[in-house]
Design a protein that fits this description.
By secondary structure, the protein is mainly alpha-helical. Helix content is 50%, strand content 5%. Strand 1 and strand 2 form a beta hairpin. Helix 1 runs antiparallel to helix 2. It is elongated, with a radius of gyration of 20 Å. 4% of the residues are buried.
Length: 80
């Protein structure tokens, strides 16, 4: 799945979570609950779909991260 497709799927899932929250709070008279429950469900969907569309490393450890080479046990005496 490409990054753009993943972003669209993520948006649809967040909107669906908000809509489900709205339906669940439809009969309540309290307006604060009518905003908190859908927002909580949308935030939950956002957190659960955080890594959707990211590349997965499948053939061993990655050699580069954010443009810098990962140290492969070359210098263990460093603190950072």
């Amino acid at each position: 799945m490409r990054r753009e497709q993943a972003a669209l799927v993520r948006l649809v899932l967040i909107a669906a979570a908000w809509a489900i929250g709205q339906v669940l709070t439809y009969g309540l008279a309290n307006d604060a609950v009518g905003l908190v429950v859908p927002a909580a469900l949308a935030i939950g969907a956002y957190v659960l779909t955080e890594d959707l569309g990211r590349a997965r490393f499948g053939g061993g450890p990655p050699k580069y991260w954010r443009g810098r080479r990962i140290d492969d046990d070359e210098r263990r005496d460093r603190w950072n």
